[in-house]
Amino acid sequence: MRHSPSSTLPSDRTTNRVQSLQSRLRWKHDHDRLRLLRCPVMDRALSLALCLALFMITRCAACNLDQCTRIYNMKMEEEGIPGPEATPAFCSVLSAYGHCVHGTTRSCRGNLKYHTTVSLLNPLKVRYNCTKHGGGGTHTRPHGAHLPPAPPQAPPQCTFHGRHRFRHCGLFGDPHLKTFHNEYQTCRVRGAWPLIDNPYLAVQVTNDPVLEGSLATATTKVTIIIKGRSTPCTTEKTYEATADAPLPSTFIDGSYRSGPEDGVVIAAGAEVHPGGHQRVEIYLRYIETTLLVRRVGKYLAFSAKLPEELVESSMQDDDNLQLCTRGCPLAERLDLVRARGHVVSWEAALAQCRNTEELSNDIVNNLTDYYLDWCVFDAMTAGVGFEFTAAAHSAQADVLRMDPSSLQNRTVPLHLEQTVPSRGFALQRLSSVLALLLVFLYRLMC
Questions:
Q1: E strand or H helix at 193, and its extent?
Q2: For 132-160, how does the pLDDT look when each residue is reduced to its tens digit (9 = 90+)?
Q3: Would you tell me how many other CB atoms lie within 10 Å of the CB of residue 403?
Q4: What global pTM score does this model have?
Q5: Residue 374 belongs to what H/E stretch?
Q6: In this structure, is the dihedral angle defined by the CA atoms of residues 240, 245, 247 and 251, taken in order, positive or negative?
Q7: DSSP code string of 335-368
Q8: Residue 233 and residue 287: Cα distance in Å, rounded?
Q9: How many helices (H) and strands (E) does the chain have?
Q10: Would you tell me which of 102, 243, 263, 349 could form a disulfide with 233, CB atoms 3.0–4.6 Å apart?
């Protein structure tokens, strides 16, 4: 049975209902988006400025790397190429893909997927013989290739000549952050967030909720990119660690060193401690940088020691969103008293944090300062256990090694069970103070 064009169209009443429903859905989406960006700041002017800044960030140009991948797949289908192969046609597609990827450098500079893709382009060109005239050529064996190659000599720029003043950044627990500028924060930061991004390396962490319904999250993945495009001291290397598997003792390509005279080295093997605690260290000799990844139980922790010059140069970038340099956004920060859980009491959590019987000797220390507060917060939020005590001790051990002068040796912990005043009470107190101030000014002037 054939239908006339008009019989297949909805009535005007149905059309109006659909348009009304779409309008309400768009309003709800925008309303929810703005509600998520709402900032808990009492000063309305500061709150408005912060919300506008966060809104502008969400509107920034996104990384277009996926668009390049779609074009690559489309070209492969058009050319009838089933997969990578040593043919001029594939090399042409790969070259076009490389140009597209490099064209996204500005918008993708903080995206670790971009840096991983860039690090794989040159090996693909070499593997499929695309280094000569777009592919198709054959590699000729150089004269004397049967002789072992001489070890590469490090160029002068691969020796560190800085001021030998360093900054430390660390992240562990639910998660707790110490920035390069000795700011101490507990943050929500769910999902993937950049910790460090400079011309030499990039570090990103992924955080997932500790318990359903809790604001606290914990680090479950650490990705480190050693960049090779801006230095002759190493080739591009990627290191990935996940909380559900033992720490790898090599980069993802199976190597554990790179560059002339071992410009980049991973500490031999994963150092295993009692209770499943593992530790891997990456050392970048040419910039005198140490990166340390720990796995304690089912969570990861990270520490870094960088030259002061690198940290200062990162601060000059207004678009810098790195947690180690800028800290967590205000809307992502948690107050220890308001956000702590109630799985165990403050006293039980404190007793567990001071118990070091199950810890290995290299991380045992008397918890002080924020590391004591953070250990108690984690235990109250997720329950008493070895993991949180070991994570806090490990983090403080890293600070004692990399930045000991930042510790104040405060042994009295913050009492996380103190009463939290309500918002209405706080506003009432503020109103009373303002009223007294007005009375005082009136009497003074009159």
A1: strand 191-197
A2: 544 433 333 344 334 444 445 556 678 88
A3: 19
A4: 0.63
A5: helix 369-382
A6: negative
A7: -HHHH---SS-HHHHHHHHT--TTS-TTT-----
A8: 10
A9: 13, 14
A10: 263
